[in-house]
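Quick check before the chapter quiz. The format below is the same one you will see on the exam, so make sure you can read both the input and the output lines.
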Amino acid sequence: MPKVKVNNIELDYEEYGKGEVLLFLHGLGSTKADWDAQIPFFSKKYRVVVVDLRGHGKTSIPSKDYGVEFMTEDIKQLLDVLKIEKATVVGFSMGGAVAFQLASSYPEYINNLVIVNSGPDFNNMGKIGEELLSSRTEFLKTKGLLPLAKEIAYNMFPEVNQIEIRNQFEERCKENDYNAYYNSFVTLMNWGLGDRLNDITVRTLVVASDMDYTPVSFKEEYVKRMPNATLSVIENSRHGAVIDQPEAFNKILENFLNHE
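Here is the expected output.
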C-alpha cells in the first residue's frame, strides 16, 4: 500500500483500474475499507482511488491540525502528486464534508461531486447536531472509544443479517487513536460552508438513506440551494448506505456517471 508525503503527513492510499478518476472519501472513525464493495465494481471502468484521511487508518496521526480544511488540503496535494487534474469525488458522511470543501476551495479539480448521507453545514444542523455533539463527546469522555465503536456499529447495522458488516465496522472504529477520533469529530461538528454552498456549480448527486439519522428532508433542503444538484434516496438503508446497500448505491452512482 503506497504512502505519499502531503501537507506534513504520510497519506495512505490505494488505486485500482484505469480511466476517468473516481476518488472515494470515507466516514468518521473508519478507513478506506468503507469502499470495499465499490472498488471491484467501479475499477473495471474507472481509475479508483481510495484514501485513509488524516488521523485515520494507516495515515499519519498528527498531534494537532485536525479538521475538514486540513483534510481537504491533504486530498488536493494527493491529486497533485498523482497528477490527477480532475476527479469525480465521492464522499460519505465526514468524507462528504471534505468533498464539499474540495468543491468549494478547488472547483477546478472536480469533475462530478457525489455526497452520501452528509451535509454542507455540520455546524448548523439544529437540534440533531447539538445533541450529537454533546452526547458523543460525553460518551467518549465517560466510557471511552471501544464502547462507542460498538454502539455506532450497532446503530448503523442493527439487523440480524448485518452482523458481519457490523463487526467489521466496529473493529475499524475500535482501532482509532482516541485523540485523533475526538479531534476529528469536534472539528467536523464546527465546520460548515454556509452561503458558499450556493457557489458550487459542478454537477452533483446527493444520495440519502431513508433511515439515516438526518431525514431525507434535510438533504432535500440543501439540494434546493445548489444550482446543479439532484437527490436519490436508497430505501431500507441507514447511515452506511455504501455498506448496507452496496448494490443499490453502485447502481445509482453508475447511472449518474453514465449520463454525464
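If your answer matched, good. The chain is about 40% helix and 20% strand.
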